[in-house]
Amino acid sequence: MLKFIEDELEGIKREGLHRSLRCVEGHQGARITLDGKECINLCSNNYLGLANNPQLKKAAIEAIQKYGSGSGASRLVCGSLKLHHELENRLAKFKKHEAALVFNSGYVANLGIITALVGPGDIVLSDKLNHASIIDGILLSRAEFKRYPHKDMQALQRFLEGAKDYKRRLIVTDTVFSMDGDIAPLSDIVGLAKKFDAMVMVDEAHATGVFGETSSGIVEHFGLKDEIDIEMGTLSKAVGCFGGYVSGKKKLIEYMINKSRPFIYTTALPPSVLASSLAAIDIIEKEAWLRKTLWSNTWFLKRGLIDLGFDLMGSESQIMPILVGDADKAVKFSRILLEEGIFIQAIRPPTVPRGRSRLRLSVMATHNKEDLKKALKVIEKIGKRIGIIS
Questions:
Q1: Active site includes 237?
Q2: How far is Cα 180 from Cα 199, in angstroms, rounded to an integer?
Q3: What is the Cα–Cα distance from 382 to 9, expressed in whole angstroms?
Q4: Are residues 294 and 187 in the same domain?
Q5: Within a domain: residue 10?
Q6: Residues 186 and 216 in one domain
Q7: Angle between helices 271-286 and 54-67 (to 10 degrees)
Q8: Are residues 83 and 109 in the same domain?
Q9: Which one from 237, 247, 334, 357 is the annotated catalytic residue?
């Protein structure tokens, strides 16, 4: 009965797309021990280096001692702890919104938000490079689904012009695209949404903690707080913890509590995660030097890679894809780099289109310049060896 699994796996291997799990020993940081080998970590979404921060660990330990290790049930049954409410109030203040609601992951948040907002008879317009969780949320909603070419506002306008007869119109976009590192044209999207009476939902997963005067994200960066209907984000990237959230008007949050199935039917996040997230938001707001150091490291590495001749695919953020093209060559590039002590994952189909395989490099505030200089030298050497640069 399960013979198809073996056949599928063999096919994946033949196409050079097979994946396996590596073991990280110890904490997530700028340097990690991977399968027993110490290396410079240029893969992580732990952008501010908070995942191993002593204040976060202290907050988590104290929460376990006070509240225990689990939340007991879904929040509508008996699992809505005081810490859930504290974190939501803190997130709403951080995002300058009326209210917020915490989900158990960013992926679950996107599923829960989209399926609550739209259904049959509605239409969702989604950037072609949006995260898989957005795509899956749209598919589960059973709304009409249109994917406009990446950041193509003319195409989005054409879709909106043809969507007048739908009951609800929802535009969804990442703000920072996770595999390309570029930024959505959010002001243009908002303008089109107003013109065609559409809702706007943004995924701030890779922007929170990185962009904006108070590190709130791209919405703050562009000054569009009052123009975005639904703002989603995660606690698992720059925040250094785990979970997802939605923020916006109080009525939106009340609606999600009553309509979002992934929220209603999931056991709530545990106390340790909630407490460490609260501590992380305090640090992000008070210690702006972390964001500034991240950007200093970003520009140092980005300038170095561009000067060496690598194609960074128009990156505008701390995420820097090195375009390779061929999947096998990308895997080879990544493997040899690791042998030299540099950990950068190869990203291949189906995560990215065929012919667009790449190394996805991301930098952290806790990288030092010596490690970044070493990484540039090794990337240059291997890039030349396998023919990515001349």
A1: yes
A2: 25
A3: 30
A4: no
A5: no
A6: yes
A7: 150
A8: yes
A9: 237
Distances (CA, A) of 113 to 106, 244, 269, 356: 10, 11, 17, 30
What is the pTM assigned to this prediction?
0.94
Which residue segment(s) compose the domain that 224 sits in?
A: 54-286
For residue 390, tell me if it sits in a domain: no
Residue 342 burial by CB count (10 A; 0-12/13-18/19+): exposed, middle or buried? buried
The catalytic residue among 178, 236, 247, 362 is: 178
List CB contacts of 53: < 8 A, sequence separation 6 or more: 240, 279, 280, 283
Helix, strand, coil percentages, rounded to 5, for the chain: 45, 15, 35
Q: Write down the catalytic residue from 84, 95, 151, 206.
A: 206
Is the Cβ–Cβ distance between 112 and 256 less than 8 Å? yes
173 within 8 A of 186, measured Cβ to Cβ: yes
Q: Quick one: 282 and 315 in the same domain?
A: no
Q: What tens digit of pLDDT does each residue of 8-57 get?
A: 988 888 887 788 888 888 888 999 998 888 999 999 999 999 999 999 99
Locus of tokens 């929040």: 75
What 3-state class would DSSP assign to 14? helix
Are 38 and 120 found together in one domain?
no
Give the CA count within 13 Å in the CB-facing half-sphere of 206: 25
Query: Tens digit of pLDDT for each residue in 239-293?
Result: 999 999 999 999 999 999 999 999 999 999 999 999 999 999 999 999 999 999 9
Instruction: Please report, for the chain, how many H helices and E strands are present, in that order.
Output: 14, 14
Q: In what order do the strands lie in the sheet with 144-148?
A: 99-103, 244-248, 230-234, 199-203, 169-174, 123-127, 144-148
* Joined tokens for residue 97: 């919104």
Q: Could you identify the residue written with the tokens 């225990």?
A: 68
